[in-house]
# Entry
Amino acid sequence: MKFLIYILIFMSVEYTKAQHIIPEIIKKEATIALAYYPQLKDTEIEFRFKNDIKKSTMLAQPVFCSLLKNRKKRKYLVLLSRKFKISGKEFKTTDVDSDILIGWLGHELGHICDYQNRSSLNLIWFGIRYLLSDNHIRKAERTADSYAVSSGMAEYILKTKHFILNNAEIEETYKARIRKYYLAPDEILLLVKEREAVEN
# Structure
């Protein structure tokens, strides 16, 4: 596994030029996640830490002014909460296991892949529905998970799910949100089997 990670980092050096702005503290994890998305190598993406993100640890979104441009020239932000809470205690997001962080980032990049296939007007309407509709949130989050799995990130996504769902100290309200809106581990495994069947 470590050998594969080194290969991915080496192969993805070209992906982390000026179009990808990444804080040094998550450079390795973001570079590995980006390597699974070659279609994003020319997409402008900035990874930026934020003090607090409501109801989430990370958030991917288009830069609003770039919606006026051709979709190929859009810019995107991946916002990362500096801290998250477990049983009322605060922990730095960067303190979690590297593979879990890669899984989180991979999910957010899945959102960006989804956004790339949408017109600017559709994206604005997408954002409005995300704020107003539980069904739309579920569809959006499951779509992002599906992009990540189809890109080969199932192992990382599963580690992230298990970290959340099997951690006795993580509040049940957050676990319930993950169960409600995101792909379940068994659904991810089913997608992997379907993907392998197509490839074989």
The chain is about 50% helix and 15% strand. The longest strand covers residues 44-50.
